[in-house]
Amino acid sequence: MASAVETLNIDWKCRHTWQVASYNTMWCLIGCSIGDIGTIAFFDFYNIAWPVMAIMALAIFNGLLTSIILETFILCKQMAFHLALRTALGMSLISMIAMELAMNLTDIAITGGAKITLIALPIMLLAGFLTPLPYNYWRLKALGKACH
Questions:
Q1: d(CA 61, CA 69)
Q2: pLDDT digits over 29-68, tens only?
Q3: Rounded to the nearest 5 degrees, what angle is found at the Cα of 31, between the Cα atoms of 138 and 89?
Q4: How is residue 119 annotated by DSSP?
Q5: What's the whole-model pTM score?
């Protein structure tokens, strides 16, 4: 096990680790975005009058749920269902929550919240990708644990 000093003093210039962390973060973003953006789009398209914060909370929950479901589905091709589900549940919740918060706070900043626009969408996805990326890199480099 690495000491506290070793986990803080890591090489932040490792191209391979950035590539692996980026790939893992991309898969997390896909899973989280399905539930998150789908929820916001549903309320937006059907003009359902819920408070913005309630929609965003539901969007975050659904984003976490779809990420876990997608990861479980992908892992079922490599292992038994119960092991795939346990692995998916063991993903970094810190990373996923940071991603979800970044996406939803960006949506609120651009649209006022609970709206999907062609301007907000790519910026939301970029924020959702970049926010957890350094943490995912650190976790992979310092602890040897991938978010997926």
A1: 12
A2: 999 999 999 999 999 999 999 999 999 999 999 999 999 9
A3: 65
A4: T
A5: 0.89
